[in-house]
C-alpha cells in the first residue's frame, strides 16, 4: 500500500511540475535554515579531529578568587599553583591538562619574522586528551615538560609557511626569544575545535612569566583546564572530588579562597551557550531554540498548506469514492501524508545540501574568521537523523491540516467535489 502511495505521488509530481517545484524549493529553504542552526549546535557538541572525546570532557573556563573577609572578588583564570594543587592531584579523571593561548610572532634563527601565530602553552597530558594526527615526529613528553625543555609541535600549514616543507624535525623556531626544537608536525586544526586549536604547541614550563603569573594570594593566573573522564558517568564523581581538593587547598590560604562558579561544565553546556561564569539552563535553551526552529518550519508550512489543499481539492471525488468503498479515516489521512512525504523528502535532501553551502558561505559570521569546516564536522549521524525528523515534522505541518479536513468531509459532499 505504501509503495502504491509513493507511485501515485511521483505521478502527481509529474502532472503538476511547476507547483511541485515550488513546494520542493519552499521545503528545501525551510529545512536549510533549520539545519544551519542544527549544524552550528553539532559543531559545538559532536566529536571530530582532534577533539574526538568531547562526550567525556569537562571544562574549567573561569576561576574566582574571593577574599575570605568577603570584600574582594576576582574573576579570571587560574595560576599554575591551582592547576597543580586542585587538578593534577585528581584521581578520578583519566587525564587533566592546563592550557594558555597567546598570539605570538614565530621567527627562524637569525631571521626575524613578524607574522603572529596562535601558540598554546600546555602540558604532556594535552596529547592524551586530544587525538592529533602526526604527519611526522611525536609530541613533547612528560620529562620534557617537567624539565622545561624547549620543544614544539607545529601544524603542517605553519611548517610550510616557515620552511616551505613539512620535513622539519629537529629544526629550530624562535618564540618569545627562546629557541624551540620541532618535535612533531600535526595536521592543521580548525578554529572550531577551540580547546585544542593552535598553530604551535609548547610546554608552559618554558615560560617563566606564565609559571610565576599569580595574584590574589597565588590563585589567579592565566590557565584554563580540560578534564577527560574515563566515562561520562564519572562527571558527578569528578565534581565531588574537585570540591574536596578545592576545600583542602583553601584551608592553606590566608587571604583568599578559590572557586569555580558553575564549572566544570560539559560539552553539552558549551553547545547550549554556557561559557565562563554564565550557565544556560536546559529549559531556557529548549524554549529559545525550539521556538526559533518551529517558527522557521511553521511559516513555510503554512504557505505549503494552500498548495497541498489545492492539490487535494482536485481529487475530492477520488477521496469520496474511496470512502464509499470503506476507506477509513486513518487510511485517508495516511495516504495524503505518504504522498506529501515524497515532496518533503526531496525538499529535505535539497535543503541539507543548501545548508552545507549556506554554512560555508556564512561561516566567518556564524563562527570565527577563517574557520575551517571539514567533513568530520558536517557528516555526523545526528545530521541525517535531525534532517529526517524535521522533514517528517514539515510533512505533518504542511499536509496534516488538509488531510484532516478532507478525511472528515461527508461522502456525498466529497463525491460532488464541493468546497
Description of the structure:
By secondary structure, the protein is an alpha+beta fold. It folds into two domains: 1-49 and 282-416, no CATH class; 62-262, no CATH class. The protein has helices at 2-15, 17-45, 80-87, 126-129, 142-147, 156-163, 208-212, 235-251, 267-271, 282-313, 316-324, 329-361, 363-366, 375-378, 381-408, 411-416, and strands at 57-60, 63-67, 73-78, 95-107, 116-122, 134-137, 151-155, 172-175, 178-186, 200-203, 220-221, 224-228, 256-259, 265-266. The protein has a six-stranded mixed barrel with strand order 4-5-10-7-9-8. A four-stranded antiparallel sheet has the order 11-3-2-13. It is elongated and about 85 Å long. The model has no long low-confidence stretch (mean pLDDT 86).
Topology, please?
Layout lengths: L1 H14 L1 H29 L11 E4 L2 E5 L5 E6 L1 H8 L7 E13 L8 E7 L3 H4 L4 E4 L4 H6 L3 E5 H8 L8 E4 L2 E9 L13 E4 L4 H5 L7 E2 L2 E5 L6 H17 L4 E4 L5 E2 H5 L10 H32 L2 H9 L4 H33 L1 H4 L8 H4 L2 H28 L2 H6 L3
Parallel strand pairs: 5-10, 7-9
Antiparallel strand pairs: 1-12, 1-14, 2-3, 2-13, 3-11, 4-5, 4-8, 4-12, 6-9, 7-10, 8-9
Amino acid at each position: 500500500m505504501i509503495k502504491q502511495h509513493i507511485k501515485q505521488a511521483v505521478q502527481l509530481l509529474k502532472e503538476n511540475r511547476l507547483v511541485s517545484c515550488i513546494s520542493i524549493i519552499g521545503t528545501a529553504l525551510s529545512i536549510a535554515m533549520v539545519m544551519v542552526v542544527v549544524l552550528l549546535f553539532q559543531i559545538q557538541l559532536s566529536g571530530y579531529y582532534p577533539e574526538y572525546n568531547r562526550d567525556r570532557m569537562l571544562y574549567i573556563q573561569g576561576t574566582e578568587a574571593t577574599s575570605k573577609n568577603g570584600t574582594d572578588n576576582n574573576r579570571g583564570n587560574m595560576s599554575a599553583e591551582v592547576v597543580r594543587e586542585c587538578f593534577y592531584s585528581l584521581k578520578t579523571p583519566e587525564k587533566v591538562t592546563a592550557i594558555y593561548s597567546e598570539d605570538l610572532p614565530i621567527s627562524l634563527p637569525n631571521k626575524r619574522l613578524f607574522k603572529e601565530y596562535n601558540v598554546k602553552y600546555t602540558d604532556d597530558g594535552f596529547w592524551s586528551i586530544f587525538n592529533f594526527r602526526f604527519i611526522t615526529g611525536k609530541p613533547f613528553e612528560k620529562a620534557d615538560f617537567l624539565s622545561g625543555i624547549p620543544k614544539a609541535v607545529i601544524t603542517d600549514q605553519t611548517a610550510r609557511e616557515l620552511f616551505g616543507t613539512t620535513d622539519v624535525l629537529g629544526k629550530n623556531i624562535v618564540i618569545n626569544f627562546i629557541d624551540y626544537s620541532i618535535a612533531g608536525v600535526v595536521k592543521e586544526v580548525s578554529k572550531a575545535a577551540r580547546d585544542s586549536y593552535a598553530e604551535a604547541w609548547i610546554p608552559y614550563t618554558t615560560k617563566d612569566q606564565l609559571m610565576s603569573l599569580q595574584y590574589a594570594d597565588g590563585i589567579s593566573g592565566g590557565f584554563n583546564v580540560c578534564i577527560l573522564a574515563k566515562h561520562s558517568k564519572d562527571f558527578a564523581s569528578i565534581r565531588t572530588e574537585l570540591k574536596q581538593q578545592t576545600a583542602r587547598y583553601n584551608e592553606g590560604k590566608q587571604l583568599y579562597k578559590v572557586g569555580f562558579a558553575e564549572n566544570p561544565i560539559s560539552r553539552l553546556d558549551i553547545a547550549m551557550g554556557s561559557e565562563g561564569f554564565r550557565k544556560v539552563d536546559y529549559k531556557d535553551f529548549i524554549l529559545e531554540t525550539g521556538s526559533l526552529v518551529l517558527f522557521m518550519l511553521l511559516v513555510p508550512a503554512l504557505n505549503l498548506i494552500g498548495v497541498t489543499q489545492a492539490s487535494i481539492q482536485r481529487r475530492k471525488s477520488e477521496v469520496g469514492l474511496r470512502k464509499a468503498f470503506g476507506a477509513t479515516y486513518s487510511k485517508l489521512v495516511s495516504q495524503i501524508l505518504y504522498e506529501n512525504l515524497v515532496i518533503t523528502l526531496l525538499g529535505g535532501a535539497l535543503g541539507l545540501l543548501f545548508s552545507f553551502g549556506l554554512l560555508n558561505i556564512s561561516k566567518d559570521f556564524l563562527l570565527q574568521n577563517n574557520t575551517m569546516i571539514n567533513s568530520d564536522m558536517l557528516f555526523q549521524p545526528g545530521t541525517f537523523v535531525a534532517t529526517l525528523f524535521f522533514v517528517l515534522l514539515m510533512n505533518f505541518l504542511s499536509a496534516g491540516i488538509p488531510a484532516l479536513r478532507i478525511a472528515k468531509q461527508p461522502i456525498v459532499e466529497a463525491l460532488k467535489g464541493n468546497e
